[in-house]
Inverse folding.
């Protein structure tokens, strides 16, 4: 999140956008393909009783903009959002990833907090927001599916959903305790809110249900998403049921992010052009 300012040169703006503190695309390349996940288990965590325990926010430009405040009425230059790979170009980030796998960083609150704060420290006073270091695929993991990050490949599901019967057994009939499964993200958010010292707001995120359904069925990324589209055509009721379950888990997850301290949330979804023949499922594209 780069502040739009006359004092910031175009070249510096480009540099800053390359260091946003979220690193989903970093998962496309493991620094060490042999790394294994060894997260520090979060055994005890509870939501803060009140957000008043966090340091007061010193830069609320993003919150004002998110509230539809006229840019001319802002007390500072409006933030500019540019999606880009995150802090993976920072040497301090590289050092962390050298010793820890991607999901180890995601699942260890101390590490997730550290890499989230790195761009804020390096570009003191030049950024207007921070994004918690995590990944959209922690939701399928919470729902019982294994997700790996393979070097040169990216996200990989060793056992993707095979058919409606498989989805019924593994997803629809399984209860997901969102708090227990994802409290490591909540702990990272709370820790980061304190670590930011009110300098900038903290953004939380998740993916739209269709996006997650696509990964869970394809077993990884795809340009066409033929498998989930075919599934939806052949058994729309089952697809809707699975999407509904994903939506419910995601909604509870986002609510938990707010309770943990996230001040802004956003949802990533695949291009709507992929869904044009599937208008009946548009409810699940954006939540």
């Amino acid at each position: 999140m780069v502040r739009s300012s006359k004092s910031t040169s175009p070249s510096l703006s480009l540099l800053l956008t390359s260091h946003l503190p979220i690193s989903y695309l970093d998962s496309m390349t493991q620094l060490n393909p042999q790394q294994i996940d060894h997260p520090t288990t979060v055994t005890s965590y509870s939501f803060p009783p009140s957000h008043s325990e966090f340091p007061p926010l010193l830069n609320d430009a993003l919150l004002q903009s998110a509230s539809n405040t006229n840019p001319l009425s802002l007390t500072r230059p409006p933030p500019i959002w540019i999606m880009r790979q995150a802090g993976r170009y920072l040497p301090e980030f590289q050092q962390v990833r050298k010793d820890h796998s991607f999901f180890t960083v995601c699942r260890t609150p101390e590490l997730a907090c550290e890499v989230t704060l790195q761009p804020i420290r390096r570009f003191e006073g030049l950024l207007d927001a921070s994004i918690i270091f995590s990944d959209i695929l922690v939701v399928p993991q919470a729902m019982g599916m294994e997700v790996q990050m393979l070097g040169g490949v990216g996200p990989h599901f060793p056992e993707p959903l095979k058919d409606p019967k498989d989805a019924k057994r593994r997803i629809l009939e399984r209860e997901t305790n969102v708090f227990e499964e994802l409290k490591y993200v909540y702990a990272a958010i709370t820790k980061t809110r304190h670590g930011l010292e009110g300098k900038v707001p903290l953004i939380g995120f998740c993916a739209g249900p269709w996006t997650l359904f696509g990964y869970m069925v394809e077993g990884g990324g795809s340009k066409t998403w033929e498998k989930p589209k075919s599934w939806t055509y052949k058994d729309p009721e089952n697809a809707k049921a699975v999407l509904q379950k994903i939506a419910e888990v995601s909604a509870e997850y986002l609510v938990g992010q707010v309770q943990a301290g996230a001040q802004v949330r956003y949802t990533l979804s695949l291009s709507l052009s992929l869904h044009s023949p599937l208008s009946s499922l548009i409810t699940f594209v954006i939540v």
User: Anything to note?
Assistant: The radius of gyration is 19 Å. The first helix runs from residue 10 to 17. The chain has eleven helices and seven strands. Residues 66 and 267 are 14 Å apart (CA to CA).
